[in-house]
Amino acid sequence: MRILIVEDEQKTAAYLSKGLRENGFIVDIATNGEDGLFLATNHPYDLVILDVMLPKLSGWSIIVEIRRLHPDMRVLFLTARDDVEDKVKGLELGADDYLVKPFAFSELLARIHSLLRRGTAQSLENIVIADLVIDVVKHKATRSTLRLNLTPKEFALLVLLSQRTGEVLSRTLIAEFVWDINFDSDTNVIDVAIRRLRQKVDDPFDKKLIHTVRGMGYVLEER
Asked: Structure pTM?
């Protein structure tokens, strides 16, 4: 497996490279956005680890070009930008995962293995699951051609679930990506949000797509 690291902080890049090579990966490094974009769009990488704030070209611009040219390439943002809005933006632009610095290498490695185990990534612009169609760019979702009237947060939650089809997402992960990361673990806000999303995505239709995995979280998949 071949991984590209696009990271301008040399110590971080060296740390990542050493750890990944020790775990059997082939690793290339780019220290600015222009070089990162050139490598990502001209070589067949299994995964790109991408910072947001980079010299010459931002990570946001890079992922747009990656998705235009290589929609199936897996991309993981690794960045110090920890605002919820940044996380949602990263997912909406097509990132497969988003990890905030500082980070534990063991967690990064687990996320990388999870990404590489997945099947072919969904199309950035249109995600199709059964009769559910999500237009990520236009912020529009339909089921059986009927428009779903979703709030911005509900749409972000649906995109998160759909981009990880078949993967059980914990309440903590959902909270971190779509809402404030400092939620009290006892709050039921995620359950309430899922219930409201189900009322629009599932309740009017016979086939249910959003499922509860008791004690673990939620998964969106066709059963």
From this structure: 0.55
